[in-house]
């Protein structure tokens, strides 16, 4: 039996301090050995001092001292040891009996426990097998689930359902961190990244194909959208035409006709562009954003969202830059629709992507693309417009650009810069248009024979008369119908109407709401500079004969009605109420040509009349009796005038005929006075003056006879053309010609006379007045009062001169 005792630490006492150094070292050594301390310091010290023998002696001395202590301890415990041995021997017999008893018990226990241990071993083995089987089943279930997800992923891949395939891969990675099968684990670690790369490549290829396809689709989409805008504009124009017809009928008091303006629903049209009425949601055949959104969604799932956004924006920007290329091999007039339709389709697609793409492209990016596109389109338009020399070409491109603006404005794109470019070239367009009209008017005038138009059918009357509102009556004439104008009128009216419509077409949809003043300005230029100038050129150079001059004068009267139609038509097309146009009616713009035509007709008629007035030379200036039926020339002139009126009233309007007749009568009156003033006539008597009085009365009677054709007031005004000759004859036949000196009487009865002419003619009147006015018996007794009055008049007028 081993008892463990704690070792006491021996410390040298203080009483030993007085011993010798050798004894002190022995005590220190003994203390270190007893305490189990390291003796290295003692060994180094003795070797350092060169006295190792001392240390050996001390060690031997210490061992001897301990042997004696051991012996003392053994002696002290020997008796106890002997007693213990005796006790052990007495217990030996008890141990043997206990051993035999334990052996018997063990045998019995072994006999009983062996079957139980066998069963226990079988149970433990079965439990172990069951646990292994359960673990295997769990592992198999896990592998089966993994394989099912793999099969599902393969199925989605085969169906190109990449999103579900990626979801299956994510399920495998998130739900099955540890795979029981190492082989399966290695396969998954290898295939899952490969599948992701495969899906990315597949989707990127589909997206690349979509980028190629969307360019064609964008062009078709742009053409369709612009076509829809054109159709909507056409419907608006049709509604305006119906409204103008209703206003015109209302203006003509045809109030029994009621028009209902029906508005068509634009939802269907909007749906085609917006993609809201298609079975597959595409709206337009081929306008499918599924590949784009699919690629974007897949890249989102792969965590490559930002990279795909950048890739998409850069590729679309490159496509837009490519769309800006204008082919130098094809005229821009032929390619402009494709050029603008491609850009329109591009931004329609981008608008859809912006609204439905879930942040694929930002609004700022779309605005930057649009700013680039507008800048490029403006540059192209500036360049192309500067080269164009045909108004129609410029109008075609302007119309398409305006339709482009209307189309894209519906999608929220600002188009002010495009409209500014169109407005900038407004003057050039109208200058080209005026140039074209100048050529057309010249061709129309050169082709006209200045003969009355002959219309066989009603449609000809409608096309040449009613369409320009130049009819004088609302009653349809009988056919065949001979118009009072020549072909120049409808031809020029068509040119002017086309000019108005082209001008309004250019100004419409250009961002300027009220443009009637601009259209009116250019219309004035067309009428005054082009048409009036061309008519003046023809009048002054090409007309020959009274018939053509009369036809031109008749044409000018019809043009006057046509000009009213032109300004009303311009106002209607510009959306201006007609009352404003009628309130601000201006002077006839073709007044120079009208005056020239009437002046030329009057001049030709005066030449004809001059041929008859040469018969004045046959007048007997010193006749014994006044001619009863007037002089010969007057009868010839009246016959000519009556023939002229019967012919001219079929062609000339009443007012034109009145003005021409008044000019002719004034010329006749002037010629009569001129005959009296002629140097060849030295003297004449009262009888000849009375003959002229008869002539003037006949001419006045002719003027009065025109009252059924004109009016009574116009007939009286027509007589004013004879005022000079009438007042001159009245003065010469007056008993008191000196009354001419009275300002009141002169202003009332002789205001048309020139006193110089009065003096010259009065001096030639040398007859004895008593033969007509005085008493025959007293003729020689005193001077004739009329002669005296006439002499006084002559004297006073000479003094005034």
TrEMBL record:
Gene3D superfamilies per UniProt: Dsl1p vesicle tethering complex, Tip20p subunit, domain D (1.20.58.670), Exocyst complex subunit Sec15 C-terminal domain, N-terminal subdomain (1.10.357.30)
Classification via InterPro entries: EXOC6/Sec15, EXOC6/Sec15_C, EXOC6/Sec15_C_dom1, EXOC6_Sec15_N, EXOC6PINT-1/Sec15/Tip20_C_dom2
Superkingdom of the source species: Eukaryota
Major subcellular location class: cytoplasm
Biological processes annotated in GO: acceptance of pollen; exocytosis; Golgi to plasma membrane transport; intracellular protein transport; pollen germination; pollen tube growth; vesicle tethering involved in exocytosis
Keywords from the UniProt entry: Cytoplasm, Exocytosis, Transport
Intracellular or extracellular location(s): Cytoplasm, Cytosol
Keyword Cytoplasm: yes
All copies of domain Exocyst complex subunit EXOC6/Sec15 C-terminal, residue ranges: 418-764
Physiological role: Component of the exocyst complex involved in the docking of exocytic vesicles with fusion sites on the plasma membrane during regulated or polarized secretion. Involved in polarized cell growth and organ morphogenesis. During cytokinesis, involved in cell plate initiation, cell plate maturation and formation of new primary cell wall.
Protein known as: Exocyst complex component
